[in-house]
Automatic annotation (TrEMBL):
<keyword id="KW-0812">Transmembrane</keyword>
<feature type="transmembrane region" description="Helical">
    <location>
        <begin position="123"/>
        <end position="142"/>
    </location>
</feature>
<dbReference type="Pfam" id="PF19853">
    <property type="entry name" value="DUF6328"/>
</dbReference>
<feature type="transmembrane region" description="Helical">
    <location>
        <begin position="21"/>
        <end position="42"/>
    </location>
</feature>
<feature type="transmembrane region" description="Helical">
    <location>
        <begin position="54"/>
        <end position="75"/>
    </location>
</feature>
<keyword id="KW-0472">Membrane</keyword>
<keyword id="KW-1133">Transmembrane helix</keyword>
<dbReference type="InterPro" id="IPR046291">
    <property type="entry name" value="DUF6328"/>
</dbReference>
<feature type="transmembrane region" description="Helical">
    <location>
        <begin position="96"/>
        <end position="117"/>
    </location>
</feature>
<protein>
    <submittedName>
        <fullName>Amine oxidase</fullName>
    </submittedName>
</protein>
């Protein structure tokens, strides 16, 4: 099996990023759609000013996440066939990271909004903090800690043992 070229590596990295963005995009679009319909539901008039403020934070964070997660598509269109895949991959990586940060804010704000509506505010704050820590652990702490657990400079698809070379 031949070693991939630099161009093939950038292409594969971009394809990997796009697959990740597809997963994130689905989640953020479902949340965003829910948040867009919320003010038109019957119980929204019963919300407090605090809850409406939290709603706006969640809505804007979901909008920001949506924009950032979809932006690599527009960037790809602008750079199509210009041989600038490395620039595109770096941009898409930054947008995916930023989009996940905004999605975390949207998720935690949504948890706070709903729990504050149905439970006492102190309990809502505790549950939202737990949700935030859970997301931070799964989305940032574990992945970044894991970066230092394995071999250096080995790509996901590299197999130093040679066992998976079909």
């Amino acid at each position: 099996m031949s070693k991939e070229t630099e161009k093939q590596r950038w292409q594969r990295n971009f394809a990997d990023l796009l697959q990740e963005l597809r997963v994130a995009q689905t989640g953020v679009q479902i949340l965003f759609a829910f948040l867009l319909t919320l003010p038109f539901s019957a119980g929204f008039d019963d919300t407090t000013q605090f809850q409406r403020d939290v709603y706006i934070v969640a809505l804007l964070a979901a909008a920001g996440a949506t924009a950032m997660i979809i932006s690599p598509v527009a960037f790809h269109r602008a750079l199509f066939r210009q041989g600038r895949k490395p620039e595109l991959v770096r941009f898409a990586h930054r947008m995916a990271s930023g989009g996940l940060a905004f999605m975390l804010i949207a998720m935690v704000s949504s948890v706070l909004l709903i729990t504050d509506f149905v439970l006492a505010r102190p309990i809502a704050f505790v549950l939202s903090a737990v949700a935030g820590l859970w997301f931070l652990t799964l989305w940032m702490i574990l992945p970044f800690a894991r970066r230092n657990w394995g071999e250096d400079d080995i790509d996901d698809d590299d197999d130093p043992s040679g066992l998976n070379q079909g």
